[in-house]
Amino acid sequence: MYTSISPSRRLLHSWKEISAYTGRGVRTIQRYEVQFGFPVHRPAGSPRSAVLAFTDEIDQWLAGSPKRIDQLANEPTVTQTDQTKRMHSLFLKAQVSTQRAQAICQNLSATKALLDRLNDSLQRGLARRTGLTAKLAVDGQSSDSRSSRMSA
Fold it and tell me: Which of 64, 84, 102, 142 has the fewest Cβ atoms surrounding its Cβ within 10 A?
């Protein structure tokens, strides 16, 4: 049972009337009072006394909110948004790290190929040198035996 003070200002006398006017449950409206400052008045001043609400104040409160309360439940919270930003940042860092690791692997493969070529080149050079030394040693023994035969 509401009381009409003026055409735009009606007085609602209970949680049930406030609930019916807003289209939300009684517990939801009580939660809005505590969490969001929903405009209710308590004539006795006690936290558990009867409540009164003016429809124009309720309309202003609903319109003054950046988003309607029923839409807030569907919106991501600040914490979720911060977590999303952090996850995106970590994802980008992981992508950069993966690209760097791939570049390092390619450089490592190229370095290994160069080292293999250098090792082969050194082995061939050593083989030639060893072959020359062995040939000189054989030639030296031959010439020593010739010279000893000649001197004898």
Answer: 64
